[in-house]
Amino acid sequence: MATVGVKRSNTFIEKLVSSKLFWIVFVLFTFSYPIIRSVNRKLPPPLPVIKKLPEFALLNGFNKPYGTKELHGKAYIANFIFTTCPSSCLRLSKEMEKIQKRIRGMGQKVALVSFTVDPLTDKPAVLYKYARKRRANPHIWTFLTGEKEAMKKIIIDGFEVPMGEREESEMMLEGETITMFDIAHTEKFALVDYNGNVRGYYDSTRDGINQLMIDIGLLMNRKEFAKN
Q1: Whole-prediction pTM value?
Q2: Of 53, 87, 82, nearest to 143 (Cα)?
């Protein structure tokens, strides 16, 4: 007895999937689409230029001149501390340690700079010891000091952040009252571009520092930065 077979025609989907041309187009699209998106992706608007810093030449922990000339062509993150600080400076320096690790992949185009607000105490040798305690890479993180008026010019007139005078401060330590000296200074970080322009101030909180890292990444991806 003969069996009668019914030939079923392939659906459009079956025909499409079995086509070599379909798979060639599919593979090309899968691999090229992310590239096309990244090329055509628009960056957010550039960071505002808050102000131009005055030129400065100070001393680093190796007692060598360091300032505008050495930082030209680099973006850098600045903070303001002093080595005998009884309050927030230790925390600020620890945050700088974390930032130092986070910018490792950015090469020599990014630097960290800590300005002392107590230049009478924080001579180059003092900053050198402090930097070693903080595990500062001298190729990335620099501590700066100088004459008091020179420090005021860059900190107060330049960054427009406070630099107070030494004042007595009492605090309890193991049940005893001890007298220490404090100096008013900001706890914010500043972002400076390759041309010495302040582009932002950031709280030393987790959210503030995360935003700082986003902004420095955006700054480095700008065409004008790549040219320098």
Answers
A1: 0.76
A2: 82
Residue type at 30 in one-letter notation: T
Q: Are 111 and 142 in contact (CB under 8 A)?
A: yes
% of the chain exceeding 90 in pLDDT: 59
Q: Are β-strands 75-81 and 189-192 bridged in parallel, bridged antiparallel, or unpaired?
A: antiparallel
CA distance 205 to 12: 58
Could you list the beta-strand ranges (E) of 85-214. 110-116, 141-144, 167-173, 176-182, 189-192, 197-202
List residues bridging with 220 in a β-sheet: none
CATH topology of domain 51-226: Glutaredoxin (3.40.30)
Amino acid identity at 161 = V
Side chain identity at residue 170, one-letter code: E
The DSSP line for 78-102 is EEEE-TT-SSSHHHHHHHHHHHHHH
